[in-house]
Amino acid sequence: MKSYVDLVRRRLEDRGNNIVGNLERFMEPQLRFTMRIFGDCVDDETRATMFPGYSEHLTEQELRAFAADFVPAYTAYAIAELEDKKKDGERHEPPFLTQEEYQEMAVREKWLRIAERMDFVPPLQLRREVARAAMLFLPGMLSDPGFNEGVLEFSLYFDLLQRLRSVPEKRLRGAAGEIAPRIAAAVAAGSEEEREALLREIRAAAAAAAGLPADPGTLLGPPMEKYPREVPPEHRLRELKNTLATMTLKDLRLTALVHLDLLTVEETRRLVLPFLARYPSFYEMPSKALRELILAVAAGVDGRSITYFIERYGSGWLAMTKPVDYIVWKLMPEEERVDALRRDNGRMDAAMMARHLARFLHSGSERDLSDAGKQIALLTDARFVADHGAILTRLGAEAEGERIKRVYDTVTLSSVRMAGLRGEERESAYQAIRGLIADAAGVSAATTSGGGNEG
Prior knowledge:
Structural class: mainly alpha
Distance between the termini: 66 Å
Radius of gyration: 26 Å
């Protein structure tokens, strides 16, 4: 019979070889998830040596190249840890658990061992377990060994880890001491209702330790969004440059229009006119000049996106100013959100506001409004262009644009309220915003209906 160490060593080697041998089949999210799984099983010192230059915002090719070197190095690390932890025999309680064993063990089993030997659990591992406890949303998660890896799909886990990093060790162990008996009680509970109530208490204790005054379930966010959420400028521009190099002239023109759509009139004069002055018209610019124009705009207004004007209400990714941290935004009182949004509005001019209002009119649903493809398609829609002009003329020409500013402020307040609704109420609120804009701009419903859906 082979020993436990021999069996696990062979499994780790086979897994590493299998991953490296199949890296060409891994898509970008799979590559990032692989780094998350293994990164969750190294200590801070090792992370500093194994992850230099790593970012989830690397291109897929760069991620694959990084993984090709990282996975063998991590495998050697995991085997060395295994041999060290089990050098005196096969023991499965702190301090003899490897970081992979913590990751593989179901919550109900793991926390029993943590409770018995809490002082032997390293602070980093406690932070991981408290962060996971904050994400125990369903009773079945207590027994699911896949739960530990499942939480890695969500940026919230990494937000919690970051927050727990500054928590003193004594307080961290105190929080774990509150969580452990509640997990034991939840495992032993006789009904789902009792178990769910205990899970709420567990989440509350873990969230309090991380400084979150809300149920983490309200902060979950989408799976596998890149973390950190804000793209480093050097990655954004480099990726854009690589993408532009593969584009046809037609696609470059459309991409240029997308970037021009992000600018105020003053920014257009400053960033774009020097390029346009060299050619008879925009449509006579060659590929090289279009690439230079796009990169100049991207560098000049880094961090903007065609859909941020609507996405900002739910995420804090403001349209014109630096984004607010996702969790900070979610926990921010509505009055403070409105203040931040109004400051963001203050950076817009009448032409940009008119574009946004026209996008509402030409998007049959809120989902269409957040669909980058549909919003890009509107740029070549004659009806959208006409309605944008009509709104700018009718609302933006009076009293230095004060009327369009008032309408846009009303839309902002209505969108804030809409972001707090769900289901039919939210859909009704969205359609009411569209009606408000149509009435204010004097644009008939027949002109606006369905425009965005066909784009």
